[in-house]
């Protein structure tokens, strides 16, 4: 393997690592968005003294859709 091939391999490895680091945190971000929506809904239901967890359900579903949109935008921005 000559110097040019070594440099190219090193460059490819760095590019792969950069992509890995970029996408490795997406799962945590998606979970964080959903958990924050659920806790916000639970807190609001507690403050408003709702018998049925209406706001918890609404904000949880909204945060799921929001996190999927966020994931879609992040993945497609890399293309």
Commentary on this structure:
The protein has about 80 residues and is an all-alpha fold. It has a domain at about 25-79. About 85% of the residues lie in helices and about 0% in strands. The chain has 3 helices and no strands. It has helices at about 5-25, 25-50, 55-75. Helix 2 runs antiparallel to helix 3 (about 55-75). The chain is rod-shaped.
Number of strands: 0
Low-confidence segments, given as residue ranges, are none
Q: Judging from the principal axes of the Cα atoms, what is the shape?
A: rod-shaped
Structural class: mainly alpha
Radius of gyration: 21 Å
Q: Report the β-strand fraction as a percent range.
A: under 5%
List keywords for this structure.
0% strand, mainly alpha, 3 helices, 79 residues, single chain
In short:
This protein has 79 residues and is mainly α.
